[in-house]
Every structure is written in structure tokens, then in C-alpha cells.
Amino acid sequence: MPILVLTTNPANPKLELELVRAIHAEIGGSVNWLHQSIAIEFINPKAADPLQIARAIIGDTKVDANLVPNEKRRKKLLIADMDSTMINEECIDELGAALGIKDQIADITARAMRGELDFEEALDERVGLLKGLPLDKVKEVRREQITYAAGGRVLVQTMKAYGAYTALVSGGFTLFADYFGKRIGFDEATANVLEFEDDKLTGTVSRPIVDKDTKLQKLKSLAAEKGLHLSDTMAIGDGANDLMMIKAAGMGVAIHAKPIVAEQAQYQFNHCDLSALLYLQGFEEADLVRQ
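Request: output the structure for the sequence above.
Response:
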């Protein structure tokens, strides 16, 4: 039984009754509000292609539409990217800003996330440009320049409250992933290790590199460890190095993603915050854990 889910950003809701009624008139099905004005589902719509119809009616309105099966809707394993997914920034770009070379590094980052550059080579090049940056400065950037993506903590805390295991898997760095992963509430975090000498960056990263293959393998290994089928999993991210795990997961989500990811992901969100991933799984507002 298919379910069409419409969601909007809680900070600027655009899910108005007129839009809901227009879509319902075209696709049919039973209507259930998951969060008034924020999220709604159409259960078993009668139209042949309810998703296409809904997106055509939505047009430029800042509402996301996704079609999900009712079976195994609530996932038991969450694998999430960090940079530009669970946090709003790319950490390596902010480290570059501390040396006055943010634009140079950010250009390489953007090209790598669009899939235009080999990830490992791009990582080595950018980290090399950071050589000599003091550890204290890295911690200052972490403390002052990085912000949490809206809805991230409620996503993780709610899924954990209902029995899911959560893992942060980042092509970034442990100094950030361990720190933010713990504060968001992830059960574990995996990331690259920056190398230091005399508390200054050497411009190198420990091997092996956490890349797209690592992310995919983490998804598969954790699912096997927890006795889960891949259909029980959710993977979320925004960049090219997230695409393999997104395509392999039972619910693979592109969140504010680069075109190469958004085009191939089964589910995509361009307007919502991370709490929308709970509504996609059928959680209602009363179920959400906000702490």
C-alpha cells in the first residue's frame, strides 16, 4: 500500500489547506495529518502516479513530496553523513577560513561533493593546504563556527527511543564527528583522523580513508551485526560520497543534496529540516522526542 507524504519546513510552513485539498482531489486516498500544517500523508491514493501529480500541483511551493510503501516503514538503523547534513557547514572549509583560504578549499570541496573529483585525492589536497594549523585553532573553529542542522537531534533521539541504532559516518574528521555525534545523540561515529605533530596539523590524514566505500560497508556491516535486512535501514546525505549508501539503504534520502545525489536518491528533501525524515517513517508529532 503506497503512502504519499507531504512535508514542509516547520520554521516556515507552506503546507496550506488549499494545496492539500487540490492534491487530494486529484489523487484520492485517506488523509491523515502527522503534524498540523507541517506534515500530512495520503494513504493508498487511487491515482496511477500520485507523486508526479502532487509535485506538479506543488510547483514552486516549498513543500516536499515523497511516496513510501507502508511495509517496514519505520527503520531500525540510521546511517548519516555529517557535513552539510547533520551540521550546516563543511568543517574543512571552516578550517580553511582560519588560514584565510576558505574559498580555495571550498571550491575543491564543492567539486568533490558533486562527484567531479576523486574524493581521496581531493581530501589529501585540502588537508595539505591546512598544514601548520594549531590544534587549538581547530577546536576554536569547532566551538565557534559549526552549527547544528535543524531537526537533527529530534530525528536521532526519536529513532533511538523507538529502538533504532544510529551511526554518524563522515568523510570529515574525528575531531568534529566524535564531538558533534555525541551531542546530537548518535550511538557511534566514524570519520577520518587528522595527523598532528607538536599540536599542529602535518597536512596529512591517517589511512585508510573514510570514503564512499567505507560508508556503504558501514551500512552493510551494522545491518548484519544487528540482524537487520537492508530494507530495515535508512541512509541520509548530500554529497557524491554518500550516494552508494543512499542507494543501498531501504530508505535512502538526499537532504538538500547536490544534483547527482538528488537525481538518484529514492527520497529527497529540498525544503524541510531533518525532522521530516520521521514523518516519512509515519511518526506523528506526538511521537517525537524533543529534548
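The domain at 1-71 is CATH 3.30.70.260 (Alpha-Beta Plaits).
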